[in-house]
Design a protein that fits this description.
It is a single chain. The protein is α/β, with parallel strands linked by helices. It has one domain: P-loop containing nucleotide triphosphate hydrolases (Rossmann fold, 3-Layer(aba) Sandwich). Helix content is about 40%, strand content about 20%. The chain has a seven-stranded parallel beta sheet with strand order 3-2-4-1-5-6-7, sandwiched between helices. Helix 1 packs parallel to helix 4. The protein is globular.
Length: about 220
C-alpha cells in the first residue's frame, strides 16, 4: 500500500507541474507578470497585495488578484473594496491552491485587461510548497507575531520560494521578537543566496523595495 501511495503522489505532483507550466505559458502569452503569495493565516498576505497593487496602479499598471481560500469571500471582498479587481477561488477542502484551480480562475478572466496578477494561496506554511501554480515569483510572507522560529520550523516553504518577506516589522519589539534572528536563520538556510525583505503593511515601510525586487 505504501508503494501505491507514493506512486499516486508522484502522479499528482507531475500533473500539477504540467498544468502550472501551461498556466505560465498562458500568462506570458498575454504579457502578464504573476506573483504568488504564500504564508500563514494572519501573516498579512492580503494587506500586502492591496498595498502593492495600489502602488502599481499608481504607476499605470493594470492589476488583478486571485484570492485563494478554503471557503468564503472575505479576502476577495477586502481586495475589491480597495479598488482592486479580484476573483475568488475556494478549494472546498484542500489546504492549498493547485495549478488546476488557478487555471479555472484564469479561464474565467479577460487576461488582456491586466499586466500583473497576484495569486494569494490558502493560509498555510506546509502544503503550498509542493504545488507551483505557474507564477513568475513565489513569495512567502511571515510576520513577527508568529515568533522567531518560523524559518527553522518550515524549511520547505522557504526553499521553494523566490522571495521571503517579514511583515509587521513595526511591532517586533511589542511582541518580543528579534527580526535579526529570523533573517539570520533564512540566510543560513539559503546559504546567503537570498535576501529576506522586511516590511509593515500598516506603516507601508519596505513596500517599494519589495516591488522593485519583483521588477515592477
Amino acid at each position: 500500500m505504501h508503494i501505491v501511495q507514493v506512486g499516486m503522489e508522484y502522479d499528482v505532483l507531475r500533473e500539477n507541474n504540467k498544468i502550472a507550466n501551461s498556466n505560465y505559458r498562458l500568462l506570458k502569452g498575454h504579457g502578464i507578470r504573476a506573483i504568488e503569495l504564500m504564508g500563514s493565516i494572519g501573516s498579512g498576505k492580503t494587506s500586502l497585495i492591496i498595498k502593492m497593487a495600489e502602488r502599481m496602479r499608481n504607476k499605470g499598471l493594470r492589476v488583478c488578484a486571485i484570492a485563494g481560500d478554503v471557503t468564503g469571500e472575505d479576502d476577495q471582498k477586502r481586495m475589491k473594496e480597495s479598488g482592486l479587481d479580484a476573483v475568488n477561488c475556494n478549494t472546498g477542502h484542500e489546504c492549498h491552491l493547485d495549478a488546476n484551480l488557478v487555471k479555472k480562475s484564469l479561464d474565467s478572466m479577460d487576461l488582456d485587461k491586466y499586466d500583473v496578477i497576484f495569486i494569494e494561496n490558502v493560509g498555510n506554511l506546509v502544503c503550498p510548497a509542493d504545488f507551483p501554480l505557474g507564477a513568475d515569483y513565489r513569495v512567502v510572507v511571515i510576520s513577527t507575531t508568529e515568533g522567531d522560529d518560523m524559518v527553522r520550523k518550515h524549511h520547505d516553504i522557504f526553499l521553494h520560494s523566490d522571495i521571503a518577506v517579514l511583515n509587521k516589522i513595526d511591532i517586533a519589539d511589542a511582541v518580543g521578537v528579534d527580526p535579526e534572528v529570523i533573517i539570520g536563520d533564512y540566510r543560513k538556510l539559503t546559504g546567503g543566496l537570498k535576501n529576506m525583505y522586511t516590511c509593515s503593511t500598516r506603516t507601508e515601510e519596505g513596500m517599494d523595495e519589495i516591488i522593485a525586487m519583483l521588477g515592477l
